Amino acid sequence: MTSRRLDPEIEHLLRELAPQVLGSVIRKFRDFAASEDAVQEALIAAANQWPVDGVPQNPIGWLIRVASWRMTDHVRNEVARKRREELVVSLVPPEQQIALPADLDEAPERDDTLTLLFMCCHPALSTSSAIALTLRAVGGLTTAEIARAFLVPEATMAQRISRAKQSIKASGVPFQMPTDDERAQRLSAVLHVLYLVFNEGYTSSGGPELHRVELSAEAIRLTRAVHALLPESGEVAGLLALMLLTDARRAARTGPNGELIPLAEQDRTRWDAAAIAEGIALVTATLSRGSVGTYQLQAAIAAVHDEATRAEDTDWPQILALYGVLAQLSDNPMVTLSRAVAASMVHGPAHGLDLLSPLDADPRIAGHHRLHAVRAHLLEKAGDLPSAIAHYRSAAERTTSTPERNYLLLQAVRLAETR
Amino acid sequence: MKYILMMNTPGNGPYQIASWPKKDLHAHIEFMKSFCTKLGAAGELVSAEGLAGPDQAKLVRADKDGKPVTDGVFPETKEFLAGYWIVDVDSPERAYQIAAEASAAPGPGGKRLNMAIEVREVMSAPPQDLP
Questions:
Q1: What angle separates helix A154-171 from helix A32-53, to the nearest 10 degrees?
Q2: Residue A258's Cα: distance from chain center in Å?
Q3: Does B94 touch chain A (CB under 8 A)?
Q4: Cβ proximity of A186 and A215 under 8 Å
Q5: Residue A229: its H or E element
Q6: Residue B74, beta-bridge partner list
Q7: Which of A24, A142, B18, B32 is most deeply buried (CB count within 10 A of its CB)?
Q8: CB proximity under 8 Å: A 147-186 to B
Q9: Residues of A whose CB is below 8 A from B88
Q10: pLDDT tens digits along A230-255
Q11: Over the stretch A138-165, which tens digit does the pLDDT of each residue have?
Q12: Which residues have CB under 8 Å from B54's CB, separation 6+?
């Protein structure tokens, strides 16, 4: 919607209100798929009308009312369709069947955003469907905006969203909070989806350009909302901190031509000090409460990096210790890679290379470009330039990222020419 | 993750599909159309194109002034690219599954072609900061 771009303040307000409006409409009409469509239409109507007529006194009531009118049309059409199909004549006139509840303008429930998130990130959905549905139903983005962000045609994204809604309908997920038993698991699914949205925006999945700021900002906004609703959850705070501490380095992460700049060579004066301060405060508060999860640990590691004003000031022993704890919590070869880098900074490259050895027998990462890249880096530090060059080249051949391939090729060339 | 699925068909002489019986050609075209519609409905299709026959293919190089010099046609080419799909899927396995479906397109006599479909991942950005 081009009109959505006209007024950033109104756009922001609409995105804030979207999940609350949707929650209210679903509770009245119970049909998630149709309610979601109706709310999209109401948002678009508001984006067109509000900049001209001004923002109504009760914007949320306005949106709920307009979405409800759309739902009324929808229900009326459904009733007519069913009647045609089944030739069943009800004795109750359709106007009464679809009479609107009188309490439509009641304040939306506080947990609607959360309930919606749990619904959109339900395990019955594929990851890509959950991401798309979350951005539309909770984030209030249009299908066109989501399609643009993921570089797929709008029609494809529309189908993905409509299939996601069908899956929800088919799985019979009710619009209510998960039970206490399910809650932890379902929350981790929500956090995973938010993390993926952030990563998609931070790294961008297409072409030479690295950043798609909108998606990272959207992920941070949604995670912030979840944090406000669940302030006691350490992992929610941890994820928000991780996003802030990572996003803080965005400006320094690439050069003028989109080339990657590794952490050690970034111009740290370009890091976002406010985001770093907020992230560090969050992670410090959550770690002091004693519960530790993988997002909190990753955030803690990001915080240690961000605290160093110069790369050489980095507290590597602390980072190594944190990776040690992380390795105990999750059996992930990517953690071993980072741990090997930290170990080489503390105990020397030979130690890091030792940590890499078992990974050659791990089918999840053997032959992966990241293993080659880290090994190349450590071999270079160890002074074995021919092997380092060979591994940089192998990594470059295997990566599926253009900026990363260019970076790795340049590393290989740099070593080859200094020999 | 995005993958390109490239449909390579045998070269050697004229566009082979042109010599198929009408019924078989129709069945093949119908298959390709509904295959594409299905990918779209699954929310997985990024783009798809069929390419004109190799009879019209040219190889182009720049001359010393940067002007195009064309060369061709190439009847001796063993295989040529007939068309491609770009899909956005959750896993490489899903891309292979789609490729297998395309590979089984009907050919002459309604028999499965079992064409070779080359599957390649489309370049994207790195997942995280470099160490």
A1: 130
A2: 22
A3: no
A4: no
A5: helix A213-229
A6: none
A7: A24
A8: 150-153, 155-163
A9: 128, 150, 152, 156
A10: 999 999 999 999 999 999 998 898 88
A11: 988 889 888 888 888 899 999 999 999 9
A12: B11, B15, B73, B74, B77, B80
